[in-house]
Amino acid sequence: MIRQITLTETMRAALRKGVEDHKFSHGHALVLAGGPGRGGAARLAARAALRAGAGLVTLACPQVSLAENAAHLTAVMLTALPDAYTLRGMFADTRLNALCLGPGLGAPRALEMVPGALWGRRATVLDADALTAFEHDPGPLFNALHDKVVLTPHPGEFRHLFPDLARAWEAGEMSKIEATSRAAVRAGCTVLLKGHETVIASAAEEIAVHSATGEMAAPWLATAGSGDVLAGLIVGLMARGHSPFEAACSGTWLHAAAARQFGPGLIAEDLPDALPALFRDIGL
Ligand SMILES: NC(=O)C1=CN([C@@H]2O[C@H](COP(=O)(O)OP(=O)(O)OC[C@H]3O[C@@H](n4cnc5c(N)ncnc54)[C@H](OP(=O)(O)O)[C@@H]3O)[C@@H](O)[C@H]2O)[C@@H](O)CC1
Ligand SMILES: Nc1ncnc2c1ncn2[C@@H]1O[C@H](COP(=O)(O)OP(=O)(O)O)[C@@H](O)[C@H]1O
């Protein structure tokens, strides 16, 4: 059965915070960032994760990027992360329960960090450079993927990882839903294929569609960095304990609803900051 993503009472209930909760009740998300001058995308994702309600969010960047990121971050915490060995060491903290890799990461750092991140078997979003870095040799990525992962490709990134499915979809031989569903089964994880119609499929063959058309149109999402925000929303929700598929569905709904709430003129950094008013409007 194909689910049309709308706001449900279950989704609303899962977004609430309980009166007796503390920050660790809502998880700790780690967002990896790349080198100097490339930190914007990861900061967008980190801010979105915190606004989505993750209890703690840490941005992990190379030593050389600390000063740049420190100048931009306050509630989001910051740590230096030189290499994958150090990343593996961070998994000793079992409270660190969700990861986001890709936005602004750069291909060399993605090739090193993605296998290290997947080794930790935490809930993980892979987006942008964490997908394109494996374009020429996807084997190491596919061998390491697990069922707590959400891949969030736009159609160009989808083409890099699943060229045969993308070709069949683009040639009209296969629907977007079928292409996404086959990709999820092949990858053994959740796949979210972006666009004004976003399709989400899990390896267990759950399928959901969000159509941003008609009254639900959100054309101002066609702006640089809005995908980085979506990755952050999903990792924030997974830190809070949502399953990968549910986090992808709720994140997609929140992303488009926040864009509609803000309206024309939206740029990516407006999205996380539109969430408080949206949360009030939906009665959280
Ligand atoms: N504020 C910041 O710091 C921001 C930082 N960012 C960071 O920059 C890094 C690289 O990201 P990017 O945007 O340069 O590369 P990307 O989106 O892969 O485009 C490359 C090619 O892919 C294609 N393509 C793209 N979209 C498509 C679509 N919908 N449907 C189909 N095809 C599509 C298209 O190629 P074509 O198909 O036209 O040949 C395009 O030329 C990455 O780390 C990211 O996180 C950005 O997020 C922006 C905000
Ligand atoms: N016309 C549109 N209507 C609704 N959503 C859109 C539209 N164009 C783009 N989006 C959404 O905006 C986001 C763009 O992500 P992406 O292409 O990865 O951009 P970036 O890499 O700049 O962050 C995706 O979530 C996509 O579904």
TrEMBL record:
So what EC number does this one have?
A: 4.2.1.136
One BP annotation, GO: metabolite repair
Enzymatic reactions? (6S)-NADPHX + ADP = AMP + phosphate + NADPH + H(+); (6S)-NADHX + ADP = AMP + phosphate + NADH + H(+)
CDD domains attached here? Answer: YXKO-related
- Cofactors per UniProt? Mg(2+)
Q: Residues in domain YjeF C-terminal?
A: 6-282
Q: Signal peptide span per the entry? A: none
Task: Kindly list the positions annotated as binding AMP.
Answer: K194, G195, H196, E197, T198, G227
Keyword DNA damage assigned to the entry: answer is no
SUPFAM superfamilies registered for this protein in UniProt: Ribokinase-like (SSF53613)
What broad class of enzyme is this?
lyase
Name the residues that bind (6S)-NADPHX.
A41, G104, H154, D228
**Keyword annotations of the record:** ATP-binding, Kinase, Lyase, NAD, NADP, Nucleotide-binding, Transferase
Family indicated by similarity: Belongs to the NnrD/CARKD family.
> What quaternary structure, including any partners, is listed in this protein's UniProt entry?
Homotetramer.
What name does UniProt use for this protein?
A: ADP-dependent (S)-NAD(P)H-hydrate dehydratase
Source species of the chain: Rhodobacter maris
